[in-house]
Design brief:
With 435 residues, the protein is mainly alpha-helical. The chain is 69% helix and 3% strand. The chain has one domain. It has a two-stranded antiparallel ribbon. Helix 5 packs across helix 8 and helix 13 runs parallel beside helix 15. The radius of gyration is 21 Å and the shape is globular.
């Protein structure tokens, strides 16, 4: 899940065109995340912090001394703070809820759980739904857990499911704060959501069924008796409600983040240690995400600024090109600022300004198909890589610490994104945005 904006921070941010060479640190960081676990996995697990910090500091130095534009980097830092407070608090609170299952999961039960997660994501956000369901999902499938289980969870629950409300995914929340009516997303994206999520669920069912049929008859018979027997830690729903309510607080500055931190602290203190033990709860996954994403939030700024300055010159002219442009970059950049930059570029194409509240109703009424393309792309393409959306990497980390096998960065893209997710994205483009 991407950052929630600190719009009330009072920063006057100016976009100054960066030297394109300063996009290189971002590329190096992405390459290190993708390749180092393959080249030196154990070394990377102990030293992953050696890449984000130096690269991030170099870019911050460039904006301070080279561009004299420290407010731009400060704005990204504030977005990072909001981002990590949100996903960190949800991580802690969800870690105190434990669901006990009897037996194992059959393909239809897995499919129902992923479908339920897609719906819940619009109420709890993709991060909240992911943190609530990932551990029970792993336990349900521990006897036959394979990489595709984790990837389709990320596809459906951690990303595509949250496309129906501003709460579902932060890019949509940014649009809401910029003047997009709360229910506009649902009324204009529900059919696209239904087709996209429905196709992913169907694909998952048949892939999972193929895997299930390889199990022994005794194992399959035991799985048929699977059932939910108990849910513990429901007190944490109070803290979850506090976090979700805080999302809508804009002023005073940092009150929202403060409430989230206090809710996480309260949850951790009142949750019995036995429940944390049952969930194998540790802080390592959120620490890893915090370290890697602080580098991403710093090094991605030149790429985003270059895009905003040059969007009109790189062939963005219709909803289809905005769909692919916003989507591809949402897969490798933080999808919230990517969404805003493409929305700003789309409105600018028609001589409208994102910063003028009176212009949003005009843009929606006359050019709403552009907003549909940008909104859907920011959410759905976030599933394309581990770093496309905040909960993706967190789900990966939790799975690894649970001792289950997950695909590498490149394995994720080549073995799953391209053969399974990309056809769905192409079909949505052909049906809704190609003409």
């Amino acid at each position: 899940m991407a950052a929630l904006p600190l719009l009330s921070a009072g920063l006057k941010v100016e976009i100054i065109p960066p030297n394109p060479l300063w996009i290189i640190p971002f590329i190096v960081l992405l390459a290190s995340i993708a390749l180092m676990p393959l080249i030196a996995e154990r070394w990377w697990q102990r030293n992953y912090f050696l890449f984000p910090f130096p690269l991030g500091v170099a870019v911050v130095g460039y904006y301070y001394w080279g561009l004299d534009n420290l407010p731009r980097m400060a704005a990204s830092g504030m977005e990072y703070l909001s981002f990590i407070c949100l996903i960190g608090s949800l991580f802690v609170v969800a870690g105190g809820i434990h669901v006990t299952f009897k037996g194992e999961a059959v393909p239809r039960a897995n499919t129902v759980l992923l479908g339920l997660g897609a719906v819940i994501a619009n109420v709890l956000g993709t991060t909240g739904a992911s943190m609530l369901l990932i551990r029970p999902y792993i336990r349900m499938n521990k006897w036959r857990f394979t990489p595709y289980h984790i990837v389709f969870f990320i596809f459906i629950v951690s990303n595509c499911g949250g496309a129906l409300t501003p709460i579902g995914d932060p890019p949509l929340f940014l649009g809401y704060l910029k003047g997009v009516p709360f229910f506009w997303v649902f009324t204009h994206l529900w059919m696209k959501w239904l087709i996209g999520v429905g196709l992913l669920l169907v694909i998952f069912y048949f892939v999972d069924r193929h895997n299930f049929l390889k199990a022994s008859p005794a194992a399959r018979a035991e799985a048929e008796r699977a059932d939910v027997t108990r849910v513990e830690g429901l007190t944490n729903l109070i803290f979850l409600a506090l976090i979700l309510g805080a999302v809508f607080i804009e002023e005073p500055v940092f009150v929202r983040e403060g409430i989230m931190v206090l809710a996480a602290w309260g949850s951790y203190m009142v949750t019995p240690k036995t429940l944390h033990g049952k969930n194998a709860f540790t802080f390592h996954p959120i620490i890893e995400v915090a370290v890697l994403f602080i580098g991403i939030f710093a090094t991605m700024v030149p790429a985003l600024d270059w895009l905003e300055v040059n969007a009109a010159h790189i062939g963005l002219k219709d909803p289809g090109t905005f769909y692919w442009g916003c989507g591809i970059l949402s897969g490798v950049l933080d999808n919230a600022p990517t969404y805003l930059n493409f929305l700003s570029a789309a409105m600018g194409t028609f001589h409208l300004s994102l910063e003028n509240p009176a212009h949003m109703p005009i843009f929606i009424s006359m050019h709403g198909e552009f907003l549909q393309a940008i909104s859907l792309a920011a959410v759905f393409f976030g599933a394309a890589t581990y770093i496309g959306n905040g909960p993706n990497f967190m789900v990966k980390s939790i799975a690894e610490h649970a001792g289950v096998k997950v695909p590498s960065f490149l394995g994720y893209v080549f073995k799953f994104t391209l053969p399974f997710l990309l056809p769905v994205l192409v079909l949505l483009w052909l049906i809704f945005f190609a003409i």
